[in-house]
Design goal:
Elements (H helix, E strand, L loop, with lengths): L3 H21 L5 E4 L5 H9 L3 E5 L4 H7 L3 E3 L9 H8 L4 E3 L1 H4 L11 E2 L3 H13 L1 H18 L2 H21 L13 H4 L8
Parallel strand pairs: 1-2, 3-4, 4-5
Helix pairs in contact: 1-6, 4-7
C-alpha cells in the first residue's frame, strides 16, 4: 500500500468518489486493505469514519467475503495487477480504471466495470450497490475470467505445449552463429521448416 500508485488511487477514491457515493448510500464504508499504508492514507481513516484503513491483515479473504464490491482506481503504473486478479477470483464485482484493467482481457461491462472520470466511478459503484443481480452477474463473470485465463493448470499446459514446439523445432533446426551460417534465410537454416516459434 505504500507505493505511489496505490496511495494516489486511494486518495483519489476517498476524496473524489466516496463523497458522491455517500450521498446515495450514507452508510457506505471504504476499506483500504494492504500492508504498510502511507501516512497520508492512514490519515484518511482518522478524518473520515466511512474510511477504514486496516494495514496488514493475515487473511484478506475475510474482507473479500464481506465486501459488496472492490475498486482499483489506479491512475499510475502498468501491467497486470495481482490484487485485481485476487478480487476477481473471489467473485467480487470490480470497478477498475483503464490502468487497473490493463492486461486482464475479458469484456468490460460484463467481467468488470471500467471508469475514467469521477462521475463514472460514482455511477458504477452506486449501480453495483443498488442492483444485487447485476453485481452478482459481474462478480461471477469476473471470477470465470480469472478461472479460465489465469488458471495455473491451464498456464502450465500452455508452457508444456510451448516447450514441445521448441523441442520439435529444435529437431529440424540447428541454430548457427553468424560465422557458421551457410545459408542466408532462417528458413534455409531450418531446412525450410517453420514451426511457429
Amino acid at each position: 500500500m505504500n507505493r505511489r500508485e496505490n496511495e494516489d488511487a486511494v486518495i483519489y477514491f476517498a476524496t473524489e468518489v466516496l463523497p458522491g457515493v455517500a450521498k446515495v448510500f450514507p452508510q457506505v464504508r471504504f476499506y483500504v486493505v494492504g500492508t504498510n499504508p502511507s501516512k497520508r492514507v492512514r490519515g484518511l481513516g482518522s478524518k473520515d469514519p466511512r474510511i477504514v484503513v486496516t494495514g496488514y491483515v493475515e487473511r484478506p479473504s475475510t474482507y473479500f467475503r464481506r465486501a459488496a464490491l472492490a475498486v482499483a482506481p489506479l491512475r499510475l503504473g502498468g501491467g497486470i495487477k495481482v490484487k485485481v486478479l485476487e478480487c476477481l477470483a473471489h467473485g467480487l464485482p470490480m470497478v477498475l480504471s483503464p490502468v487497473a484493467a490493463e492486461g486482464i482481457g475479458g469484456a468490460p461491462g460484463r467481467d468488470y466495470l471500467v471508469c475514467e472520470r469521477t462521475a463514472e466511478y460514482v455511477e458504477s459503484v452506486c449501480k453495483l450497490l443498488s442492483d444485487r443481480a447485476f453485481a452478482d452477474a459481474v462478480g461471477k463473470a469476473g471470477n470465470q475470467l480469472v478461472e479460465t485465463k489465469f488458471n495455473f493448470e491451464r498456464s502450465l499446459d500452455h508452457l508444456v505445449d510451448f516447450c514441445r514446439q521448441v523441442a520439435k523445432a529444435k529437431r529440424y533446426c540447428s541454430v548457427a552463429g553468424p560465422s557458421e551460417r551457410k545459408h542466408d534465410s532462417p528458413s534455409e537454416q531450418c531446412g525450410g521448416a517453420r514451426e511457429g516459434v
